[in-house]
Amino acid sequence: xxxSAVLSVPAADPAVAAAHFLTRLxxxxxxxxxxxxxxxxxxxxxxxxxxxxxxxxQGRIPGAVHIPTARIAELAPLLIDPSATVVTYCxxxxxxGATRAALAFARLGHPVKEMLGGFEYWAREGxxxxxxxxxxxxxxxxxxxxxxxxxxAC
Length: 154
Fold this sequence. Notes:
This protein has helices spanning 14-27, 31-40, 53-58, 72-79, 97-107, 118-124, and strands at residues 28-30, 45-49, 65-66, 85-89, 112-116, 129-131, 134-136. It is an alpha/beta fold. The strands form 2 sheets. The chain has a 5-stranded parallel beta sheet with strand order 1-5-4-2-3, sandwiched between helices. Strands 6-7 form a two-stranded antiparallel ribbon.
């Protein structure tokens, strides 16, 4: 009989696991949930793009506020309601810019979450995005979302 690679380290006690996953969800939001909140006009959420001017020009989430990470301490007090929860994003999973931006907002005292997948997954899930030349939208990448374009309702 082959030993289980998954079980070579036992799963955590369910109560410990519940605390861990609740904590993770308090730090993270996914692209689909951010899109749903923006589409619904949910109050109390501000989406912040922490990328460069060139990246912003190339494409951004509609309604996002642009504050490059290096300028958060300077611009956040002027642009962001301190009672709003900030959701940061950068390029995608291979970039930790959203994490650095979330840290900067937390250090300023803002409630903050990081959007998993960043701009890459926003576009790959088929959500429209703004560019300096208008609105664009890519086909849904069926490795990230259902082909129907309807949320997976995870």
